[in-house]
Amino acid sequence: MNRKAKRGGSTPFGEAALVHRAGGRYVALVCDSDVFHNVADRWPEAVDVASLARYARAFAVGVAQVATATA
Predict the structure, then answer these.
(1) Which of 17, 21, 28, 52 has its CA 20 to 30 A from that of 6?
(2) Among residues 42, 12, 8, which one has the least CA distance to residue 28?
């Protein structure tokens, strides 16, 4: 994570906008890729499965930590 939006700052796009407006907590996964949402950004050529598995494990750990954290 290299950026955290301030509450009351910009509103995200898509489904996250609904969560944001309702005051919910969310994580927005974004990337800086010239082929994001492009036909060249598709399975299997553009997917690094080992890297994806590391991200999945990291997010699972993060979700578990947030779910068990006290406010």
Answers:
(1) 52
(2) 12
Query: Structural domain tally of the chain?
Result: 2
Containing domain of residue 62, as a range? 34-71
Nearest to 29 by CA among 53, 6, 71, 59: 59
- H or E element, residue 66: helix 49-68
Q: How far apart are CA 31 and CA 65, in angstroms?
A: 24
- At 41, which amino acid appears? D
Is the pLDDT at 29 greater than 80? The verdict is: no
Q: How confident is the model at residue 10 (pLDDT cuts 50, 70, 90)?
A: confident
Residues 41, 23: one domain?
Answer: no
Q: Note whether 67 and 52 are same-domain residues.
A: yes
